[in-house]
Amino acid sequence: MLCEECNKNPATVVITVMAGNETTTRHLCQSCVEKLESNIAQGDISTFLSSLLSILARQPREDTLKCSACGLSYAEFQSSGKLGCAHCYTHFREQLAPLLLRVHGRSQHAGRVPGNLSKERDLAASIASLKEKMELAVHAENFEEAAVLRDEIRTLSAKHSAEVQPQ
Amino acid sequence: MKQENVQVVVSSRVRLARNYHDLPFSNEHSPENAALCISRAQQGLTDQATHEFALYTLKELNKMDQFSLMEQHLISRDLVQRSDIGAALIREDKQISVMVNEEDHLRIQAMQGGLSLTTAAELAFAAEEKLAAVCDFSFDVQLGYLTACPTNTGTGMRASMMLHLPMLTRYKQIGNISQSVAKLGLTIRGIYGEGSEALGDLYQVSNQVTLGRTEEEIIEAVTAVGKQLIDMENVLRVRGEKESLDLEDSLWRSYGVLRFARQMDAGEFMEHWSNLRLGASIGVLPVTLAVADELLTTAQDAHTKKYKYAHPELNSTDQARCAVIQAKLNVKED
Which of B138, B148, B154 is facing A82, going by the closest CB pair? Predict the structure, then answer.
């Protein structure tokens, strides 16, 4: 792999920056890293940070990233602000996550769910609570009760997998 | 309490953005898909025994009629710009309007007078259920309802209130309010006019954030801010009434202009309209709030143009505007 900064020397150093939930990784060669470090040696932390940021800002993947369902490229989304189809959310998930977090401050939906999914969610919740009860029963060595609970879980799980129809 | 609300809150509105799960979003639409969205929406709403929704296909309407629907807030500017594929299903009483092939396949809007976001939400969700019965919507367990613009994903809900805040504007309080409202994930902006200008002192408060909060939380937040603004505006109105002749004078002057001017552009109208509505709500001017609110729609450009076409003796839209206003203010010409 070549250095992502000069594209000449082999990359021997990996820099990972974590900002909030966002992790960015860059592969650089020794000489480019030394250039960065010389900025610190001169006590110029702001030059160091800005050169680091400019390296991190280059996202070569995004230029070629496309949604395979509707054909919209990530670059097109960046200029229009509009996605092409529901599958774009899957294809650009990694890129959209920090954007969604910035706009909404949260990343997990908390509102209404479609009718069919809410039934499914209730079912999943009752399975989880039965499992918990079963573990408690096992812990108390109450194996008869645990067996009854296990059978109930099996019945519900079969019903659950029958109802889950991917949209 | 209801009366106090109406004096400041012109209307409450809830909008839901939804997309059918099996079609690309509107921007990537083929004409066939656009037609399919319209027929699905129509099936969802008009298969009911009541048949209370009327279909408006934009390309079959002239520009004047399109803009007239826009002035009634039944359709958006964005839909007018997509008039080749856009349509709207509007309930007879105009409390619900479903835009089809706007930025999202469906934009379900419910409108109510005064402060009543909860009622508006109930109406919107009832319509949404009927529409969902025809075809499932795009939904992701983590991201909620998926929308063309990621800023709407999650609940897909925008809860907004149209507020008339002439005194807060006069005392230059809107800037401060805007800052504190932003901290709550809400936004306040002018409804008429470009940029920072808020013609008619009319503002919209709405939620900015749609992901990670429930519909109830969003409605509560917007309602709470709305109530706060009502209180702040009313304090200034009471003070203004007691302390100064200036306020009363400016209200009567606007009333005079509205009754006797012979031509008026939309900008000037909005300026006087704000005084007319304030005068109506504090009981200074001999006008009802209902009349003032009706003029807010009927004296806008598209409506006055329509009026001009029906009255060939009128030479310009600005002249027609005065005729519309004066017919409503019940002026007896000598």
Answer: B148
What is the three-class DSSP state of B158? strand
Nearest CA in chain B to A98: B150
In which element (H, E) is residue B216 found? helix B215-243
Residue of A nearest to B150 (CA): A100
Same domain, B55 and B116: yes
For the cut 70, the answer to whether the pLDDT of residue A6 exceeds it is yes
CA gap A52, B48 in Å, rounded: 62
Same domain as B67, residue B125 = yes
A125 touching chain B per CB within 8 A? no
- Could you report how far apart the first and last alpha carbons of chain A are, in Å? 40
Q: How confident is the model at residue A166 (pLDDT cuts 50, 70, 90)?
A: very low
- How far away is chain A from the Cα of B34, in angstroms, using its nearest Cα? 14
Same domain, B217 and B68: yes
Query: pTM higher than 0.95 for the full model?
Result: no
Q: For residue B183, what are its two tokens?
A: 């901290």
How many other C-beta atoms are found inside a 10 Å radius of the C-beta of residue A20? 8
| Final residue belonging to a domain, choices B188, B204, B236 | B236
Q: What is the pLDDT of residues A62-82, one digit of tens each?
A: 567 899 999 999 999 988 999
Pairing of strands B96-100, B9-18: unpaired
The nearest CA of chain B is from the CA of A39 a distance in Å of 38
Residue B143 has pLDDT above 70, yes or no: yes
- Do B40 and B185 fall within a single domain? yes
Structurally, chain B folds into a number of domains equal to: 2
Q: Which helix (H) or strand (E) holds B219?
A: helix B215-243
Same domain, B144 and B293: no
A18: its two tokens: 């974590």
B194 contact partners, CB below 8 Å, separation of at least 6: none
B27 lies in the same domain as B132: yes
Disruptive mutation site among A83, A117, A163 for chain B (greatest number of B CBs within 10 Å): A83
How far apart, in Å, are the Cα atoms of B150 and each of A20, A118, B103, B306?
A: 20, 23, 12, 38
Which of B236, B264, B279 is the last residue in one of the domains? B236
The CATH number given to whatever domain includes residue B211 is 3.30.590.10
Q: Looking at the domain assignment, is residue B334 inside a domain? A: no
Give tens-digit pLDDT for B210-225. Answer: 999 999 999 999 999 9
- Quick one: B191 and B50 in the same domain? yes
Q: Give SS3 for B303.
A: helix
Task: Give yes or no: residues B212 and B281 share one domain.
Answer: no
Residue contacts between A and B (CB atoms, under 8 Å): 105
> Residue B12: which domain range?
3-236
